[in-house]
Structure formats: C-alpha cells, structure tokens
Design a protein that fits this description.
There is one protein chain. This protein has two domains: 78 residues, ATPase, nucleotide binding domain (Nucleotidyltransferase, domain 5, 2-Layer Sandwich), CATH 3.30.420.40; 110 residues, ATPase, nucleotide binding domain (Nucleotidyltransferase, domain 5, 2-Layer Sandwich), CATH 3.30.420. 35% of the residues lie in helices and 27% in strands. The chain contains seven helices and twelve strands. Helix 6 links the parallel strand 11 and strand 12. It is globular. Bound molecules: adenosine-5'-diphosphate, the ligand CC(C)(COP(=O)(O)O)[C@@H](O)C(=O)NCCC(=O)O and potassium ion. The site of adenosine-5'-diphosphate (ADP) has 15 residues, from strand 2 and helix 4.
C-alpha cells in the first residue's frame, strides 16, 4: 500500500509519497509547488500508484475542490481535521476544530520527533505559527503572526518610501545601517523573537523550525533548534500510522 500525504498551505501545496512500512519521514518521493501547478503535481501522484491519501488543507474550499478533482480515481481519501485527540496528542484549543489542521499535524510531528520533551514547533509559511506541545502530549496553544513575506510586503505596500525587500541567506546586523537591512532585521527579529519568547515561556527542551521561510529565519535564532523540511507532512505520516 502506498500513502500520499498532502499539505496545502496558503501559498504552496507540499506532498510526499511513502510506503506502508516506511520509517517516519522516509519519503519515496516528495515535492511542492504553488497552487497553480496542481495539475503537474497530480500527474506525479498518479504515476506513484498511491492507494490512500491524507490531506491537510488550510487554503479554503476552492483549493480543496481542486485537490479532490485532481486525486487519482478509486483512492481512499481522508481530509485531516483538528480533533480533540489524535495519535496520542491532546488538542488544548478551547474549540478544537478551530485550530488550523496544519498546526495540529505539525504538533503531532513535533511530538513524534521529540517524544517526552516540552517542544516548540514553528511553521514559517504564509503565516508563521509558533506552538507549544508538552512532554505529556498536550498541544496547549500558540501564536499566529504574518509570515516573512507578508511582513515585508505590508511595509512596502503601506508606506511611501519603503521598498520590497528580499531576505538573503545570512541575516543582516541587528541594527541595519541602510533601509533594506533595517527592514530585514526588523522582520527577522519579529519572527525569531517570537520563537525565542515561546521557547523561554514554555521552558522548551526542543525547538523545531519548518516551512518555506525556515531557511531565512533559523539563522537568526539564538537558541538550539532543529530545521525540519516539512513538519506538517511528518505529522500527517505519524497520524496515518498511529
Ligand atoms: N525566496 C524566499 N524568500 C523569503 N521567503 C520565502 C521565499 N520562498 C518562500 N518563502 C516563504 O515561504 C512561504 C511559503 O512557504 P510554505 O511553507 O509553503 O507556506 P504555506 O504552507 O503557507 O503555503 C512564503 O510565504 C514565504 O514566507
Ligand atoms: C494560521 C494559518 C493561516 C497558517 O497557514 P499557512 O501559513 O500554513 O498557510 C492556518 O493554520 C489557519 O488558517 N489556522 C486557523 C486558525 C487557527 O489555527 O487558530
Ligand atoms: K504556517
């Protein structure tokens, strides 16, 4: 049996194909692309011969319908949802279904990668989410902030003098001596500062950083952390085999 895992975020759709007795995160194939490239992704899914799919979608009903139409015929489909409990993780949201299902999956993934630890999981995508999981397996809640590109774009769109910036591979000095560096420092400090604050408040023994903006944010962190390529897919895998 082959399993397809899909993480549809607000910017990109990420996916992985995994065999039935594969180790956690041991993908046979994996990729990701913007929503517009769904047809090309669907061709890869058909070629992989998958029999079951677990989909996390936070990109709304239109993307859901497009994914549903693109899935191979006859495949068993589960739309992953935030529930009060899954794979040994308790969901501490007041209304468990309100929690973004990608965050619930990421928390399951974080628990699988750091079992028995108080862990912070930061998923840095369109939005950045920074969530706390306790060592005894409870998602207690978290933070939602605009992602790196949203922060940069909001400054460029709403001011007369500020340009659209592109973060580089290394963070600039904290105190930028030119406009571009000052903006990049500001938004990286907001992202990294939120993660550091979460780790400090939670007394976290482990910090996992993931998502499309993780390569830019992780180098700005002044605490031990682990960059994981796609923690949502890892969590979906853990949920599927639990
Ligand atoms: N070249 C880049 N520079 C800065 N950030 C980037 C770049 N490429 C991707 N990103 C970040 O990654 C995000 C997309 O990552 P992803 O984890 O797939 O998001 P989502 O799950 O919300 O679709 C973008 O919104 C942006 O924040
Ligand atoms: C916070 C999010 C927008 C993150 O989406 P992403 O950046 O992964 O595209 C998504 O998890 C969501 O829509 N959450 C619902 C609200 C909540 O989690 O409380
Ligand atoms: K996110």
């Amino acid at each position: 049996m082959k399993l397809l895992l899909i993480d549809a975020g607000n910017t990109r759709i990420k996916w992985a194909v995994v065999g039935s007795d594969a180790a956690l995160g041991a993908w046979e194939a994996a990729d990701g692309a913007p929503h517009a490239q769904l047809d090309a992704m669907a061709a890869s899914w058909r070629a992989a011969g998958v029999t079951r799919v677990l989909v996390s979608n936070v990109a709304g009903p239109e993307v859901r319908a497009r994914i549903a139409a693109a899935l191979p015929d006859g495949i068993e489909v589960e739309w992953f949802a935030s529930t009060p409990e899954r794979a040994g993780l308790q969901n501490g949201y007041l209304n468990p279904g309100q929690l973004g299902c990608d965050r619930f999956a990421a928390a399951i993934g974080a628990r699988a990668l750091a079992p028995g630890e108080d862990v912070i999981v930061a998923t840095c995508g369109t939005a950045t989410t920074v969530d706390a999981v306790t060592k005894d397996g409870r998602f207690i809640g978290g933070m939602i902030l605009p992602g790196l590109v949203l922060m940069a774009t909001s400054l460029a769109r709403n001011t007369a003098q500020l340009p659209q910036v592109q973060p580089g591979s290394a963070p600039p000095p904290v105190f930028g001596d030119n406009t571009d560096d000052a903006i990049v420092s500001g938004i990286l400090s907001a992202q990294a500062g939120a993660i550091e604050r979460a780790c400090s408040e939670h007394g976290a023994r482990a910090c996992i950083v993931s998502g499309g903006a993780a390569p830019y944010i992780a180098p700005a962190l002044k605490l031990p952390h682990r960059v994981v390529d796609n923690i949502v897919l890892v969590g979906l895998h853990a949920a599927a085999i639990a």
